[in-house]
Amino acid sequence: KYKTVGDFADADIKTFEKEIYQTGFYHAKARNIIAAAKMIRKEFRGVLPKTMEEILRLPGVARKTANVVLGNAYGVVEGIAVDTHVKRLSKLYGLTNETDPVKIERDLMQIIPKKDWFKFTYMLIDYGRKYCPARAHNHIACPLTKLVLK
C-alpha cells in the first residue's frame, strides 16, 4: 500500500493511525512519519537523506533512528543505535553509568571499535531479546553469566 515516499506523504492520518495502532504511540508515529515523508519529498526531492545531520532534521527522528537508517540504507556507520536493550545491557554489564541514550552512545563509541558499531547494536538487541528480557533475565541460559561465574 505504501510503496513510495509520496504514498506516505499523502496518507490519511486517521487511516494510517489505525494501520499502525499495534506499534504503540501510534498518534505521534503517524504524525511524524507523514510529516517526515512530506519533508523528504519537498526538501530532498523524494530521496532519503544520506547524512546524520539531514536525517536528524526529519520530524520524530533522533540518533537511534538515524543510526539505523544510515547503516541499513546506505552502509554508513556514524554511531551506535541505543534502544532499550542496548541501554539496559550496557548498564547491566558496566559499559556505562549513563541513562541518556546520547551519552550511552558516546561511552560505547569510546570502547567498541568503530568497525563493530553497526554489528554491536544488533548483537546486543538480539542478545537482550533472547537471554536478557527486561522482566525475566535467564541467568541459567545467559552466556555472559557463564563467563562471569567461571
TrEMBL record:
The keyword RNA-binding does not apply. Pfam families: HHH, HhH-GPD. GO terms for biological process: base-excision repair, AP site formation. Belongs to the Nth/MutY family. It comes from the Bacteria. It comes from Candidatus Giovannonibacteria bacterium RIFCSPHIGHO2_02_43_16. Keywords: 4Fe-4S, DNA damage, DNA repair, Endonuclease, Glycosidase, Hydrolase, Iron, Iron-sulfur, Metal-binding, Nuclease. Residues 1-130 form the HhH-GPD domain. InterPro entries: DNA_glycosylase, Endonuclease-III-like_CS2, HhH-GPD_domain, HhH_base_excis_C, HhH_motif. One of its GO terms (molecular function) is 4 iron, 4 sulfur cluster binding. Gene3D superfamilies: Helix-hairpin-Helix base-excision DNA repair enzymes (C-terminal), Hypothetical protein, domain 2. This is Endonuclease III.
